[in-house]
Structure formats: C-alpha cells, structure tokens
Amino acid sequence: MTDTVTQTSNTPALTKIVESYKKRTVESERLQSRAERTIPGGNSRQAGHWAPYPITIQRAEGVHIHDVDGNAYIDMTANYTSLVHGHGYAPIREAVLKQIEQGTAWSANNPAQLDLAEAIVGRVPGMDQIRFTNSGTEAGNLALMIARTITGRNKVLMSRYGYHGSLLEFEVGAFDLEGPATLVATYNDAASFEAVLSEHGDDIAAVFLEPVMGAGGVIEADRDFLKRVQVAANKAGALFVLDEVITFRLSEGGRQAQLGIEPDLTMLGKLIGGGFPVGAVGGKAEVLSIFDPSNLKAWHSGTFNANPVTMTAGTVAVTHLTQARIDRMAVLAGQIEDGIRKSAARHGIPFSINRCGSLLNIFFMETPPKATLLRADQEAISAFHIAAMNHGVFVAARGMMVLSTIMTEALVSEIVERLDLAIADVATLPIWQKSA
Ligand SMILES: Cc1ncc(COP(=O)(O)O)c(C=O)c1O
User: Fold this and answer.
1) Ligand 1 pocket residue status of 243, Cβ below 6 Å
2) How far apart, in whole angstroms, are the C-alpha atoms of residue 222 and residue 219?
C-alpha cells in the first residue's frame, strides 16, 4: 500500500505563522479594532476579511501593495482580477487625470461612454449593445431586470456555489441554498439543469452561469455543458446569461469567443473599469430594445452609471488588453503553476491547482474540490494565505491568484521563490500525518 498524507483538524497549526503575521502588522490590527467600532466586522466587503484580522493597505503601485506597517507585497489578487494592468498603470492614470480636470460626473452623456461601449461591443460576439452599471453586482441586478421584464417570470436558475455578486437572489445559490426566487443545479452537469428547467421552466426568467467559476475555485465549464444549458434555457423560454465579470480577461472577446457561444446577455465588470467601480450588461439589440425610449419597458438608471472617469479608465484598460498580452499572462501563469507544483511535491504535501489562462486557484488536496466551499483543506489554505503574506506575496484567502500584464519572468521567479517559503511553512505545521 502506498503512503498517503492526510490532514487532521483542530490543531494549533496556525499559531507560529499567525504570531509572525501579528508582529509585522501591529498598525493594521489597531486600525481593524478602530474600524469595528463604526463598521460592522470592520469592513464593507466580506472577501476582504480574514482571521485574525486583515491588513490595511496604504498605497499601491505596479505589482506591489504597501500596508500601513510599511510591509510590501506582490499583489497576486489584482483587486480580485480587476486591475489587469496592475496598480496605477501610467496610460490609465494620465487619461484619468486629464478627465478629472474636465469634471468627474454630470447628469447627461459623455463621449468616453461611447469609446468604451464600442471597444467592448466590437470584441464580444454575443453583444450588439451594452449598458453600464457601477459594479458586477448591479450588472446581475440589471440582467435580472431585463430577463424578468421580457419573460414576465420571477425565478433564476444558477449553479450551486456559483457567484454572481452580492444580491440576495444570487447569494443564496452561492451557498447552495434555495431562496424564494432562486433555484440551483450542479455545475458541469447539464442533465441537472435540464431537469430543473423541465420541472420549473414556466417560472424561470433566466439561467445564470459563469463560463469558469471564479469564486468557486477557477473551475472550467466544458463547452457542451454550456451549450446544452443554453438550449434548454431557451426552450423553456428563459434567457441564458453568461457572467463574464472575471472571464473577460481570458481572450479579447471573453470566454464566449474562445468557446464559440453567444448568450442572450453577458455580464461584465472588474477589468472594464480600469480600476474604477464598474459593471455592464450587453446583448442582442432585440433583447435590449426594452430600453428604447420611444417604447420603454424597463427603467434602468443610476447616478454614477457610465461616469466619465470610469469610462475613460475602462477604455484604456480594454484597448490595451491585446491578445498578445493575454497569451503572455497565460504563459507566465503556467510558469507559476509549474513552480509551485514542484515546490509542493518537494515538501511532500498534497497539492492541486486549477488554472485557466491567467487565473489560478491552489488547494492543499490531491484533487481540486468541486467548489471552494467544499474544501477539506481550510486550515492549510488559511495558513498558506497568512504565510504567503509573511513572505511578501498577497494572494486571495481562498488560494486564488491572478496575473497582470505588467508582470515579468523575473517577477514570476521571485513569486515562485517566495511562495516556496510559504509552502515550506505550511508543510512543517503539525496538521499533516503519515498514514500507511
Ligand atoms: C463572476 C462574478 N460575477 C459578479 C461579481 C460581482 O461583481 P462586483 O464585486 O463588482 O459587484 C463577481 C465579483 O467577484 C464575480 O466574480
């Protein structure tokens, strides 16, 4: 019988790593205590919280973030994929500063909105037209409004553990619950979607899917699954909505261009704002004709929708994201994948990794779980998250890492070396035991 390494739970495994983290982040701890007095939990963004407390960032430039204690980190989150050209990308900064001198918001159109709309619509196969919002969450809300208006139905069907933003309809599904307006089925299992659609199709306004699960752990959907769900959704009279908030970075035309899929609606966000708050929904002109002012069927408004600062930054971000740069990010991400796989093997602990282009998610398990909420390596990944910070690399608490276009081979080598030290820390924790 071969030796396997398994994890035990409830050990004081994190203590040494956490002590070192606490020594380095005294001011962050003080600010967290202060924040908790006026902001519940000390944050307005759950994903930015972790135990024992999160660091507070003072400033960022290029690939680095700097915390209030003076520690520097290589930022492998890029604000959860949104800063595809890193922090303070000079062409965006220059364009935005110029725009700010001309004003930041007004209650009428601006030309920058046209530039961004044309740049995106020109790339994404499923889009003739687009409308902007201030976040991916609002894009989900808008997509839902469109689908409900067109179908006269109320419910959504989504994948359990899928993530489409912080809207109650979607949050329940992200945690594998069902709500009054939410039905769930199993990712990459077309039959499970078809079954729900044949039973509840008359109530379902739209089916929402990520072509690669982001928060779920960088899990790729296969093309046949997406196609079958699209066909079943449309047969039931529901809209098929592809959430490309994260995956737009995977090719110039998003994941749908790679897979040859044209959804009824596409949600975008993150990178298309060039570092500023943004979301968008695009689709076929006939679907979006509900916003034709001469025959208005749905009211969509927002004080900061398509504001000129976001639109200016977004236009630079999108037009500078060429296929060559996308391909290069994927090559560098592959080098990180190889490097940390070798590191984990050297240190003799279970390890697996999901990678799609410039998106990665690591797991201290022999095979990746079906979703990050189902992971058995919580203690190890939490230890790694803190240990990586101790060694100067900032990764998402769930083990997600992403590339930006300004990363170089030299930086990738440095990342792999630093993460090797973090993996070494994880490997020496008393949570692993050998079993024959
Ligand atoms: C796939 C997906 N959809 C929607 C959203 C919501 O976007 P936002 O955080 O801008 O509201 C996210 C955010 O992480 C996401 O990953």
Assistant:
1) yes
2) 10
